[in-house]
C-alpha cells in the first residue's frame, strides 16, 4: 500500500505537474567537466529519485547504462515511454521503490555505479549510503534546496526543514570523499550542489 507521500507524487505526475523536460544545465556541465574527463569509459549510472527520467534518459544517450529509481510508478511509466523511442543500445532500467530500500538492496547485492545522481530529493537516512554504491573512483552528483531558499526569495521548493539541506551539510556528510565542486547559492536560489569522488578501494 503506497504511503501518502508516494500517492502525492503519483498524483503530481499523473496531473502533468511534473513531466519530462530538458536536463538541468548542472547535469550537462557535470557530464562535460567531470564525468567525461574522469570516467572516460561510460559504465553504469544511477539516478536516484529521478522522477520522469529527464536526466537518466539524457545520460543514457551519452552512453551510460542508466538505472532510474523512484517510488512513483507514474513517473517511471513516463520515463519508460520516452525511453522506448531511444535506439536499442541506450539502456534504461527502471526500479520502483523508496530510495532507502533501493540503496539497501543494491548494497546487499554489491551493485556498484560509476556515478550516482541525486537531484532535488532529500532523505537524510539515504545520505551515508550513497558512497557505498559507488565504485572506487566513482562520482556523486548531488543538488537540492537548502534552508536559505526561502530567505533568498525563491517561491519554489519545500518549506519543511526535513527536506532542506543545512549550510555545509553535504560537505560534512561527504568529508571522506574528494570534493571536486561545491556551491551553495545558485542563481540566487538556496540550492547546494556537490560533485565528489569516492576515494580508496
Ligand atoms: C522534486 S522531484 C525530483 C525529480 C528529479 N530528480 C528531478 O531533478 O527533476 C522528487 C522526486 O523524488 C521522488 N521521491 C520522493 N521521496 C522519495 C523516496 N522516499 N524514495 C524514492 N523516491 C522519492 C518523487 O517521486 C519525485 O519523483
Structural class: alpha/beta
- How would a crystallographer describe the biggest sheet? 7 strands, mixed
What is the CATH first-level class name?
Alpha Beta
Number of helices in the DSSP assignment: 6
| Residue-averaged pLDDT | 93
The shape, in one word, is globular
CATH architectural arrangement: 3-Layer(aba) Sandwich
From the alpha carbons, calculate the radius of gyration and give it in angstroms.
Answer: 16 Å
H and E order: HHEHEHEHEEHEE
Find the CATH topology. Answer: Rossmann fold
Question: How would you sum up this structure in a few lines?
Answer:
The protein has 201 residues and is of the alpha/beta class. 29% of the residues lie in helices and 26% in strands. The protein binds S-adenosylmethionine (SAM).
List the helices and strands and how they pair.
Elements: H1 4-14, H2 25-38, E1 44-48, H3 54-61, E2 65-70, H4 73-83, E3 92-96, H5 99-108, E4 113-119, E5 134-145, H6 169-173, E6 178-186, E7 189-197
Parallel strand pairs: 1-2, 1-4, 2-3, 4-5
Antiparallel strand pairs: 5-7, 6-7
S-adenosylmethionine is lined by residues 9, 49-51, 70-72, 75, 98-99, 119-121, 123.
Tell me what the structure shows.
The protein has a single domain, classed as 3-Layer(aba) Sandwich (Rossmann fold), CATH 3.40.50.150. The chain has helices spanning 4-14, 25-38, 54-61, 73-83, 99-108, 169-173, and strands spanning 44-48, 65-70, 92-96, 113-119, 134-145, 178-186, 189-197. The chain is built from 6 helices and 7 strands, in the order H-H-E-H-E-H-E-H-E-E-H-E-E. The protein is α/β, with parallel strands linked by helices and 201 residues long. The chain has a 7-stranded mixed beta sheet, with helices on one face. Helices cover 29% and strands 26% of the residues. The structure holds S-adenosylmethionine.
